[in-house]
Design brief:
By secondary structure, the protein is of the alpha/beta class. The chain contains 6 helices and 8 strands. Strands 1, 2, 3, 4, 5, 6, 7 and 8 form an 8-stranded mixed beta sheet that branches.
């Protein structure tokens, strides 16, 4: 988008899902990105891309060598989690239901409100963690963390772009909204791959 519209200066603020919802409703931000569909009569939400949530561990963790484990084995492992209301926690909680496992049964050693901080904690050997594959990509490429497949557990979520229909867009905001929607297929193939695979030149 910036290559096509070089005069546009993007301003990106990082905040929780609840804050995105609140600020869209009070019209203090024009566009919000959320890992959950923001359901409100004044909001329009469209799919932006599909995100994959994976389990990562320190390279010295016993699971790292084989890269596989059983969901039941999670209960005994020190695990780092996001806050209970986060999209990641919600996806993990729903996925574990199929294995009769709840978050309360896990050995939670730390709760952090930032996915990048969680990945860094895993790099330091604090515990294992579920994070977005996009967040883990750099650590995986550099060998600082290892991906662990949990048998029968495939975690993914749709990330949405939302706007308040009562707030008129500026020309630049309207162009970005249309551009992002037009890139859905591209985001989920070539662009996504370039973000999660640091071994391939972009």
């Amino acid at each position: 988008f910036q290559r096509q519209y070089s005069a546009v200066l993007p301003r990106v603020k990082i905040m929780g899902r609840g804050q995105v919802f609140e600020r869209l409703l009070n019209e203090t931000i024009p566009i919000g990105i959320s890992s959950k569909l923001l359901d409100h009569r004044n909001l329009e939400s469209v799919p932006l891309f599909e995100d994959h949530v994976i389990l990562i561990a320190h390279p010295d963790h016993p699971w790292a060598e084989y890269g596989r484990a059983l969901p039941a084995d999670l209960i005994d492992q020190p695990i780092i989690v996001r806050e209970d209301t986060s999209g990641t926690c919600e996806v993990v909680r729903e996925g574990l239901k199929a294995f009769d496992t709840t978050m309360d049964m896990l050995n939670i050693t730390m709760e952090l409100g930032n996915a990048e901080a969680i990945a860094m904690a895993v790099e330091q050997g604090v515990g294992i963690a579920f994070v977005s594959e996009m967040v883990a990509a750099r650590g995986l490429a550099m060998g600082r963390v290892k991906k662990v497949e949990l048998e029968g557990l495939d975690l993914h979520r749709t990330v949405y772009m939302a706007r308040n229909i009562n707030r008129p867009f500026t020309r630049a905001q309207g162009l970005f909204w249309e551009f992002a929607q037009s890139q859905y297929e591209h985001l989920n193939t070539e662009i996504w791959q370039s973000l999660v695979d640091f071994s391939t030149p972009v």
